[in-house]
Amino acid sequence: MLLVVVGSLAMMFAFGALAFSCGDVAHDELGFCGDSSCTGVEDCTTCERDCGACPAQCGDHVCGAGEDCSSCAGDCGTCTGQYCGNSACDAGETCGSCDRDCGACPDVCNDGACTGTETCAACAADCGACTEICANGVDDDMDGTTDEGDCTGGGY
């Protein structure tokens, strides 16, 4: 990269692209910083105005979004007291807000999702009614009778 300064005009030659700055506005061959388009040599470090803020990174000395004392103590400081990730389900924490400390939320019948340990026998509302599968030797519909019904048609 070559930077040439003539008076208040700075010209930068990089990878065959011409870029220059005039005051606080940087220009390149595809646009300029401040034109609402992140193009050319612009990126979050050279033109936040067009390209947006750079994502938070642990170690950048800013406690940004997605960082906290347990994930990035260098930026956010050392954790003290109650916080999600201290291995204790503290007041105000729940399985929904901090499963790391409080554990996974239990399956809830009638929530519209057949998940985890829910089955047709335990929660027909979420998993649907159990049906018998013929000739498999299992009481699939949990009614106490194995392979009952008309099994010649392939089902119950």
Residue windows where pLDDT falls under 50 for at least 5 positions: 12-20
Instruction: Please give the domain count.
Output: 3
Distance between the termini: 77 Å
Major β-sheet strand ordering? 1-2-3-4-5
What's the mean pLDDT score?
76
Q: Structural class given helices, strands, pairing? A: alpha+beta
Give a short account of the largest sheet.
5 strands, antiparallel
SSE arrangement:
Blueprint: E1 2-6, E2 9-14, E3 17-22, E4 25-28, E5 31-32, H1 48-51, H2 73-76, H3 99-102, H4 124-127
Antiparallel strand pairs: 1-2, 2-3, 3-4, 4-5
Could you characterize what this model shows?
The chain folds into three domains: 50 residues, no CATH class; 51 residues, no CATH class; 47 residues, no CATH class. About 6% of the residues have low confidence. A hairpin with a 2-residue loop joins strand 3 and strand 4. By secondary structure, it is of the alpha+beta class. The longest helix is centred in the N-terminal third of the chain and has 4 residues. The protein is elongated. The protein is built from four helices and five strands, in the order βββββαααα.
Keywords, separated by commas or semicolons:
15% strand; elongated; alpha+beta; single chain; five-stranded antiparallel β-sheet; 3 domains; 4 helices; 156 residues
